[in-house]
Amino acid sequence: MKEAKLIIDGQGTERLIRPATVVDNTLAVGYKKEVDVDWRMNFQRMWEVGQAWKEIYPYQDSARVDCRPLSERPDKPYLIWIASDMHIGNVDCDYKTLQKHTEMIENTPNTGLITLGDDIDMGILPKLEVRFMQAFPPYMQAFTAGDLMAEFSGRNPRGKQLALAHVIGNHTHTLMEQSGMLFEKFYEQSKAPMLPGIGELFLQVGNENYEFVLAHRYVGQSKLNRTLAPKRLMEYLAPNADVAIVGHNHQVANEKFFKGGKFHLAIRPGTYRVGTDLFENARGWGHGELGGSCVVLYPDRHEMLAFDKLEEGIGYLKQVI
């Protein structure tokens, strides 16, 4: 193609048009790296990384605990305190009652406990209260909980392992989600298994075996039907469970019901964050209800009794042992 002139407007303006120049596309320096992707090899690599991740994952979905060596009288009933939603570190925590209940377990034979999440209050949540209602910073909350776990693991007047299992809650789980750090490191002081928010616990008490299904929170939250969530947990996850327990909503209730040929217990264990309730009342949630729920298990027959107050449960236990 030769050079030519092209009129580009109504006034006769011309523009010179030149032929296109052929450019050599060979690079003068270097070369482009060729990428050879093998999806099968990458699948294998991903699987290996996943296996390494799971090897150091500290949680388990189920656990078995023999309560006989943890009891002073293995032939007598055993009481389990459900220590849920302690919220250690929040200014609204009832520390005096929490200390009282802890010391009651540490000094009463044939008792143990399960923590059901939100042991400490600090979390990375979209609520100003989580930041502004802390008595201690996060690390001090964790250190305090770690010292408490050490007592539950043998450093107590009875010299017994008292903690049977730990369930993580949404407050500390948000810390792991946002930071990648496992904030439940305070459980390192404990010998009890850790369940990741939901799990099953199989207990041997004397000659009897009991199945617990535990969750910090679950579907079926209802202000009118308080035991609906643990019933749903049992229905969907562990229909053969003897006891279903769900925390999180700071309500107290227990119900014994017959289903599938046997009796079951559904429990909501309350909280120790029951102070001013400023934010709960402002949202229309109502008052937090004081924890202390417990279950008494018999070793010679399949029988369970639930109490909303730890004082009542221990009072009953002392009568039968």
Give the class-level CATH name. Answer: Alpha Beta
Low-confidence parts, pLDDT < 50 over ≥5 residues?
Answer: none
Average pLDDT works out at 87
Structural class: alpha/beta
The fold-level CATH name is Purple Acid Phosphatase, chain A, domain 2
Secondary-structure element sequence?
EEHEEHEHHEHEEEHEEEHEEH
Radius of gyration from the CA trace? Answer: 30 Å
- What is the total tally of β strands? 14
Give the overall silhouette.
Answer: elongated
Main sheet: strands, sense, barrel: 6 strands, mixed
Explain how this protein is built:
With 321 residues, this protein is α/β, with parallel strands linked by helices. It has a single domain (61-320), classed as Purple Acid Phosphatase, chain A, domain 2. The chain is 27% helix and 23% strand. The protein is built from eight helices and 14 strands. The strands form three sheets. The chain has a six-stranded mixed sheet with strand order 3-8-9-10-12-11, covered by helices on one side. A six-stranded mixed sheet has the order 7-6-5-4-13-14, covered by helices on one side. Strands 1-2 form a two-stranded antiparallel sheet. The mean pLDDT is 87.
List keywords for this structure.
321 residues; Purple Acid Phosphatase, chain A, domain 2; single chain
Please render the helix and strand layout as text.
Elements: E1 4-7, E2 14-17, H1 39-55, E3 62-66, E4 78-83, H2 95-107, E5 111-115, H3 128-132, H4 138-152, E6 163-167, H5 170-179, E7 194-195, E8 198-205, E9 208-215, H6 228-237, E10 243-246, E11 252-259, E12 262-269, H7 278-282, E13 294-297, E14 304-307, H8 310-320
Parallel strand pairs: 3-8, 4-5, 5-6, 6-7, 9-10, 10-12
Antiparallel strand pairs: 1-2, 4-13, 8-9, 11-12, 13-14
